[in-house]
Design brief:
2 copies of one chain form a homodimer. By secondary structure, the first copy, chain A, is an alpha/beta fold. Helix content of chain A is 42%, strand content 18%.
Chain lengths: 379, 379
């Protein structure tokens, strides 16, 4: 008998308009799509136990290459048995390439054809991130889904700048692909990143060139960086149709519940965003009836929970008055409960989207849900 | 049929030397003694879910009157159904009187026969804490075990100062008792606090006067405030024998595992201390083989757990390398895991003491355990 080779693959199960229900098979388990990936920047989804992340319904988490290469170091994690064992997450993990964080966190950096040299924001130590090194690091971590190194620039920017960065990202995509062919393990996947700012022509050239290279999945990068909701959706409208139907599509760094609904409506399958946990740490809760600012004094004597219908104990079992007290007092438990409740809400949102697509009622579900979410109780 | 009136009472089950195994009956459940009470200052044991505190084996938690009277306010907690519902802790709760925190946290305060006037360390608002108000607040919170207001002074101090504070605390004990007789509910208990610094004669006068007043339990206060381990134990030696055998004895604000063992050996039944959670937030773990400083670089590549034998997932399932990384990165999960592990260790320690007393081998157990604990692996 031959040993079965682990494989990676996307399968679409149903469609409702352009919205897709599907699943991504990985050696570490299925990812139900549309999927939201909780962000575990430094190998921990902030203020949550890994068991809570899984119980909330997340099939996959994201971790940040930039943070982990600096601390504790990719080689160290490899010696310790890889990122899954290190952070006690048994399901699939997606890692970014580190490029975006270098741009946003490092004041001292130098771009070249080869890659980007930068100084760590932690201790000033010098590092080099090339397409090859980014893949090498992600392989050391043992990431199931890896991302090519790209150059992500702030918007708005001059068209020549956007074009230059897009073209560089294409050459880096090719080099990433070659490195992954050498270093990647069976069942692991490398995704390309479509760049080109908000320019439809640049986005088209980027998408077509990357599709020709045949990646396992395609991300749309360089959005949610200041261009606004409408321009982001217009850009998506132009890009998604150019991507192959048989591969997963990932919108990076997005977003609010409304963003997710609109992107799924356009055929996006995967998301990641720090909003649920970051907002949780700042006293903001997402609920089916809009956002709730627990700092607001109106909650001080409210004995009711965030959401009596939630399956998450944080949203269901603790009073708003107690959450208000914890947030005002700067207590750990406030961040823990709200990050948990928000992580669970995002997973409930994705599950509801999947159910609506399966029953081919996504458009009406989306319209009704967006009305509820817009209530924004106490902002 | 008559409804049974809820009662409070201590029962000694076994003795090993002066060490006592017992149980305190309260309407909210039994407290197995010797007992360690995790500290939930602001109605939360810092960085732990209440379910974790209970699962670790704690029968009772402590909450701080001073913090809760300032935020969210005792009347507010009463309107919300009391402290148990507020913080989701179903077992017994002990509250202190607030006096100690006024002394240690408020720079602006004024003592008088009536009580202590002070300004909140949060917002500068003026408050008055009298023996009557301290009992009233604790009744509003719904505390099962309440403490008299006392004056706790820093050591070393002039004997006349210590005597004056001890005498004032006796008069406040009498007033607390009268207030509690009016406001306390059936099954709730008020404890007196023996004062007198490290002066055996003052301690004796305090203890005898309080015993004559007949309280439900007796605390030894004003220790672990700078006098040192040996002087603390010498003071205990003089006091414990003066307390009635049929009432629980509580050593306030103590201490290290070694402190607890020595105090239990002298007949103390109850303890509270911030050490397990505070040390946890600072990267220090308590284990059966001594303290472990997770900041230390020697843990950076240690794939082993804190304690493979522990029943606590935090101590058993996560690598020291990961804990080191979390602590160095200032991640919430580091504080969460180490506070959890330490809280569980303190409960394991108390359970081991109870077992050793039940089998009348406390002295040999204590000697062996103190040797193991002294290892102090990486301080």
């Amino acid at each position: 008998m031959q040993e079965r080779v682990p494989t990676f693959g996307y399968r679409m199960l149903a469609q409702s308009g352009a919205a897709r229900l599907g699943e991504i098979a990985t050696p570490r388990g299925l990812i139900r799509t549309p999927a939201f990936m909780p962000v575990g920047t430094a190998a921990t989804v902030k203020a949550l136990y890994p068991e809570q992340v899984a119980a909330a319904g997340a099939d996959i988490v994201l971790a940040n290459t930039y943070h982990l290469m600096l601390r504790p170091g990719a080689e160290r994690i490899a010696r310790l048995g890889g990122l899954h064992a290190f952070m006690r997450w048994e399901g699939p993990i997606l890692t970014d390439s580190g490029g975006f964080q270098v741009m946003s966190l490092c004041k001292l950096r130098e771009m070249s054809e080869e890659g980007v040299r930068f100084q760590s924001h932690l201790d000033g130590a010098r590092h080099m991130l090339s397409p090859e090194r980014a893949v090498e690091i992600q392989c050391l971590l043992g990431a199931d889904i890896q991302m090519q190194l790209d150059e992500c620039i702030e918007l708005p920017a001059e068209r020549t700048q956007v074009e230059r960065a897009m073209a560089l990202s294409l050459r880096w995509a090719e080099r990433s692909r070659a490195a992954f062919a050498r270093l990647g393990k069976p069942g692991q996947a490398l995704f390309a990143i479509v760049q080109g700012g908000t320019d439809p022509e640049l986005r088209r050239r980027s998408a077509q060139a990357l599709v020709a290279m045949d990646f396992a999945g395609y991300a749309v990068g360089g959005l949610a960086v200041g261009e606004g909701h409408e321009l982001m959706l217009a850009t998506l409208d132009g890009v998604v149709g150019l991507l192959p139907a048989g591969k997963p599509r990932y919108l990076m760094g997005v977003g609010t519940p409304q963003d997710l609904i609109e992107a799924v409506k356009r055929g996006i399958d995967m998301f990641d965003c720090v909003l649920p946990t970051r907002n949780g740490r700042h006293g903001l809760a997402f609920t089916w009836n809009g956002r709730v600012n627990l700092r607001n004094a109106c909650h001080a004597e409210d004995a009711g929970p965030l959401d009596p219908e939630s399956s998450c104990p944080a949203a269901r079992d603790y009073s708003r008055a107690y959450l208000h007290h914890l947030v005002k007092s700067g207590e750990y438990l406030g961040s823990m409960l709200l990050s948990w409740a928000n992580t669970a809400f995002y997973q409930e949102l994705m599950a509801a989207m999947r159910a609506a697509i399966a029953e081919d009622r996504f458009a009406s579900w989306a319209a009704a849900t967006k009305r509820r979410l817009a209530a924004s109780q106490t902002d």
